[in-house]
Write a sequence for this structure.
RNA sequence: GCCCCCAUCGUCUAGGGGACCAGGACGUGGGCCUUUCAAGCCCAAGACCGGAGUUCGAAUCUCCGUGGGGGCACCA
């Protein structure tokens, strides 16, 4: 490891699906580590598996990362001196490095086909090393004559390989466990193990921060690096994220999440379209497997760029807790200014067919700021302000406590009171209606509930006095009138 | 089956030999506030996986179990 060179990290996803919180959290940790060290972050697309390639996933991945606020210094979209950053465009490099290992006796050509491999699988633990001792000249001849082949690593058969992981200390693997694994496939593409190590080295990566799923192949990676005589990066393996219950790897679920839970998803893209704020997601993700101390846990991305460290990463698996995402989301919304919230809400209103006046929206925001968790929630809180006709069902107006007649009287009295108001301001509305409730010998709630229902069509609404003011006397009057008629006709 | 990793409230975690009858956060229950619903504030319940060992002393160190997870491809 070279401690004197500047920190360089990489996030190296494969374009086989969309960005989920597992990948995003790995990207975040890399990003933060680069930031705090004044180093650089590289985005590298590992697309050597042509079978699992999904066409638009790279584009979407970049979009999702950017939306979260995670940026990189070099990558397929921005270029850089170690270009190209798309692995499939570097196969020549990988090939020559694989051949280099063959030349120094650390790897060899293998001519076994899939059928043979399949047939020996039951008898041998791994590859049976059928081609390991083929004479190098003969092997080279067969290769140049065009015979289909792979390149395999000549694994040591004795001793152990020990690798140092930053958060797990030493990891030792017995070499007899290692088979002669493939470095370069017959289809002309390298295998991950080779490609990633070659690219990491060529790109000057100093710290490899990646998921735990790579831990079991770390000996292979170290062996490849050592075979080339390169210096090893500092390894840091993050734990996996598990399902909300704490059992099973999260990403196995792959699609949505809990059946009953359509607000939550492990995909960044879904979270975005549900109306979560990127800062809330960042705050939530960073705490899955990392903590600063026992005091602080509300962080913005900018805060994290100043306090993050690798040493405090927790090696044990973390279960995804969507309740906590909602909590952070709420916190972030409440920290925002009204105009910020308005700006975030607007697209969701638009999407549901509401085109709010900017000034009006700004007045509405304070009424719902404490009541929404996602921005999308604002739609159900506000739609009655913007729809001409609201749906009323007469049965809602009566219950155990009040009869139809009582409710009618209330609505008529309220209507009269409101019509006589000199100023249609919530302060006036409040004082007059409180007076009215007193006069009628009613609790304020008893008086207000039918009104709420009449003007919003809902049992719950934003605070009523402000709501009446913003709705305006004309709409309020006509809606109460309509409710009265409805009740009279039962 | 083989290899590797992990283990504190339901969940995320603090703690790293005495400061711990274990602290915080989410969630849950209760209360206050209150025009509904929230938000906010207050209170409560709730954990060191088990067993040996080391030590005057173990949540903390060691070993063995057990449990959970990850990986064993011409996938990444």
């Amino acid at each position: 490891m070279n401690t004197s060179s500047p920190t360089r990290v990489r996030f190296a996803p494969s374009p086989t699906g969309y960005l989920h919180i597992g990948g995003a959290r790995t990207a975040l940790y890399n990003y933060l580590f680069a930031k705090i060290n004044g180093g650089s972050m590289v985005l590298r697309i590992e697309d050597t598996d042509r079978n699992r390639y999904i066409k638009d996933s790279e584009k979407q991945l970049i979009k999702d990362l950017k939306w979260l606020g995670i940026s990189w210094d070099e990558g397929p979209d921005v270029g850089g001196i170690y270009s190209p950053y798309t692995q499939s465009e570097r196969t020549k490099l990988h090939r020559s490095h694989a051949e280099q290992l063959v030349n120094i006796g650390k790897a060899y050509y293998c001519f076994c086909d899939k059928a043979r491999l399949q047939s020996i699988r039951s008898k041998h633990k791994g590859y049976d090393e059928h081609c390991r001792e083929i004479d190098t000249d003969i092997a080279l001849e067969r290769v140049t004559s065009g015979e289909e082949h792979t390149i395999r690593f000549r694994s040591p058969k004795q001793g152990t390989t020990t690798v140092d992981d930053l958060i797990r200390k030493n990891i030792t693997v017995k070499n007899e466990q290692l088979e002669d694994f493939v470095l370069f496939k017959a289809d002309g593409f390298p295998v991950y193990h080779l490609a990633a190590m070659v690219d990491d080295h060529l790109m000057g990566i100093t710290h490899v921060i990646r998921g735990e799923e790579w831990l079991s192949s770390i000996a292979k990676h170290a062996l490849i690096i050592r075979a080339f005589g390169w210096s090893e990066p500092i390894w840091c393996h993050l734990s996996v994220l598990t399902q909300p219950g704490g059992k099973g790897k999260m990403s196995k679920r792959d699609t949505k999440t809990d059946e009953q839970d359509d607000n939550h998803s492990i995909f960044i893209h879904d979270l975005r379209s549900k109306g979560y704020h990127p800062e809330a997601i960042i705050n939530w993700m960073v705490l899955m497997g990392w903590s600063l101390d026992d005091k602080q846990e509300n962080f913005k991305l900018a805060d994290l760029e100043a306090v993050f460290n690798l040493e405090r990463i927790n090696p044990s698996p973390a279960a995804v807790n969507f309740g906590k995402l909602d909590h952070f989301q709420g916190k972030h919304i409440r920290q925002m200014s009204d105009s910020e919230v308005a700006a975030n809400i607007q697209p969701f209103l638009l999407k549901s067919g509401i085109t709010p006046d900017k000034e009006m929206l700004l007045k509405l925001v304070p009424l719902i700021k404490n009541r929404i968790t996602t921005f999308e929630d604002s739609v159900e809180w506000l739609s009655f302000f913007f729809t001409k006709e609201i749906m009323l069902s007469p049965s809602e107006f009566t219950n155990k406590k009040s009869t139809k007649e009582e409710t009618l009287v209330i609505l008529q009295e309220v209507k009269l009171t409101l019509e006589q108001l000199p100023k249609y301001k919530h302060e006036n509305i409040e004082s007059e209606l409180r007076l009215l409730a007193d006069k009628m010998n009613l609790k304020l709630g008893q008086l207000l509930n039918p009104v709420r229902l009449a003007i919003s069509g809902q049992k719950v609404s934003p605070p009523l006095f402000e709501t009446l003011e913003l709705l305006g006397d004309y709409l309020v009057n006509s809606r109460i009138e309509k409710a009265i008629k409805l009740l009279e006709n039962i």
Summary: The domain at 336-386 of chain A is CATH 1.10.8 (Helicase, Ruva Protein; domain 3).
